[in-house]
Amino acid sequence: MTKISVGADTQRVDGRDKVLGRALYGADRLLPRMAHAVPVVATVGKGRIVSIDVAGTEQVKGVLLVLDYRSMDRLQPVAFSFAGGHAIQSLQPLQGPDIAYRGQAIALVIADTLEAAMEGAALVRVTYEATPFSVDLDSAGREEVLQEPATKYFKDFIHGEPEAVIGSAPVVLDQFYRTSPQHQNPMELLSTVAAWDGDLLTIYEGTQASQAVQQGLCIQLGLAPEKVRVISPYIGGGFGQRGSISPHTVFAAVAARRVGRPVKLLVPRAQVFHATSFRAANEHHIRIGADREGHIVGGVHRVRAQTSRFDLMPYTGQETTARMYSWPAFRGSTTLVKLDTQTPGFMRAPMEMGSFFSLESALDELAYTLNMDPVELRLRNDAQADPISGKPFTSRHLRTCLERGAELFGWNRRKPKPASMRDPDGTMIGWGVAAGAYPGYISPALAKVRLQRDGTVILSVGGHEMGQGIRTVIAIVAAEELGVEPEKVRVQIGDTAVPPQHTTAGAWGAATAAPPVRAAARNVREQLIKLVVEQKGAPLYGSDPKTLTLQDGWLTGLKGRQRVSEILRTARLPGLEAQASGGAPGMRPDALKEAAVGKIAAAGPEFPDYVAFSFVAHFVEVKIDPAIPRPRVTRVVTVVDCGKVISRRTAESQVYGGIVWGIGAALTEASEVDPRFGGFLNNNIAEYQVPVNADVRQCEIRFIDREDPVFNSLGAKGLGEVACVGAAGAIANAIFHATGRRVRRLPIRLDDLMVDSNVRL
Ligand code: MOS
Description:
Layout: H1 15-19, E1 35-41, E2 47-53, H2 55-59, E3 63-68, E4 98-99, E5 105-111, H3 114-122, E6 125-130, E7 143-146, H4 147-150, E8 157-159, H5 162-167, E9 171-179, E10 191-197, E11 200-205, H6 210-221, E12 228-231, H7 247-259, E13 263-266, H8 269-275, E14 282-290, E15 296-308, H9 318-324, E16 330-339, H10 352-370, H11 374-380, H12 398-409, E17 421-422, E18 428-439, E19 445-452, E20 457-460, H13 470-482, E21 489-492, H14 509-536, E22 549-551, E23 554-556, E24 561-563, H15 564-570, E25 575-582, H16 591-596, E26 613-624, E27 632-641, H17 648-668, E28 698-703, H18 727-739, H19 750-753
Parallel strand pairs: 1-13, 11-12, 15-16, 20-21, 27-28
Antiparallel strand pairs: 1-5, 2-4, 2-6, 3-5, 7-16, 8-16, 9-14, 10-11, 10-13, 14-15, 17-18, 18-26, 19-20, 19-25, 22-23, 23-24, 26-27
Helix pairs in contact: 6-7, 10-18, 13-14, 14-15, 17-18
The protein binds dioxothiomolybdenum(VI) ion (MOS).
């Protein structure tokens, strides 16, 4: 076997288990005597329950129990994650008769079989007193609050006095952009299997935050942490949907306790749209002043972002737009708009998707105003240091991303004039560019590594595998240090039995888990070398123990080799182990403790001496049939600066996925709200359209692949989120180039491009 090293293009270590169905997801757990729970949800936009009749439900054969606010256990409140707590929102359904939003759970039917539970759920009869509600950013009944000072930690981003500078600039861009609410829609539905063994509770659930789920449950049920174990080895797609505890988890736990049997609760797709977080609707007001040569003199980025009536979900996208260009003056501020939905939250590049669609559309518009190439405009305003703090970037290869992307794409063959490029059959062609960035975060972590006599490696660290490939990343790093095949590394993650399991999100997984794994594995390797030198003497292996290589279970030196199992047997040791903690400079001293109690304790993107961001450039071709103007994305070139690539295959897959998400955001994905009904209407994947294979054509992916040794010892920055930042903007810009029509609202649909239609915004 060739020695595995960081950057290798290896198979996913869990790929085989997944295709053989051996990887168990939450709802795959089938426990003896398991009962099934099905929620019933509110069908009014807001109001109060007047009556609930469960008589019909209780008649259904197999129904064991019906819970509603009258019969449900009283739960201790668990705070919203951005208010210092653990929950996706502060509102826990089934605790009273009030309905805060359409789709809120109002009852739970538990039965022997899923079918009986569904039948019983359909027979719950409810009458309501309906009250007025507001579900979109323009509703009369909305309530607006300034994020600063309404939230404690989330400040405006201010540098200089941009309004004054823009007011006297020779060229000014001043536009509004809009994005729709969106839902994550991973393939794996929200689900929980809850099982009690005496007073010990075990939860099997696909979550990005097993520790937060554990702690949240302990608070809700008044249990000690050692009484609850949460197991989340695999997640069938996270995308930010599962970063905190959601209401359904405690439903399953209570149901299981009440019926004295394990309970599975699988939230149906239609209910998922209201059962946990989603991406908030945004309005972006962007103002940019520039001189006639395209030097930006100031920028203002004001956002109105949706939140719920009961929680303030912060919007922080300007944290990144503030660092994107060399703004001599900048202001980023947020107004939160309280609406009658559940609390919005994370969805892949949660804030940056909307922010960069808007910013990068604005740059494109500015380029046309200036009659300048849009790549050149971006290069001209590339930042050398953080405009807000003045601190340096840990690394920034945005310029190279743009230059390399332009070359690969053949950008120099672009005719700048809109609607000027066509195929011989008349199909309109558009070429667009956009860039993006995403903050570099690191969360606290503890890694434990153990090398066994049989050559296997057992390691645990904080992390959750949601398909992004963190198991493979960790295995590659340990395999490189310990000279084993990645398949020999048993990775224990997502399980509160090996704490702390900090939430995995914000593209901080690899940068968080890999450095302490490497440090612990290196320590084990050094222990092994020390052992063999003690046993055999250094001369046998040459004078420098560093020349020893470890591979395939053998430690090889200049003058001989020795079996690892033999070394351990001679030393009468079953194995060698070490642990190492990870974190970032300036991290709170109690960060690891905070992580151990399920709190978000990540640091970044501003550190004491620098700021850290990943960067990306997207080049996109769209083709549009003028008769039926449905845009097709026919070609994409994406170049990413994510520092060192640890696992090439999963990294490429992440970027591929990011491009697909960009296509979805630009062209198909919107959660539709209707002011007459409340909630989200297209709560199914037939009407909430995610791109399918036919929507995705040629994608070329490149990495700068240069280590960022300042950010961490692996030199790896975040990747999962930056991959999709700006992609929707590049598509919108390509559509403008193809048609001459600037659409400032996502998603862009056929009707926006019809000859006689009025652009909606
Ligand atoms: Mo990511 S949207 O922070 O899981």
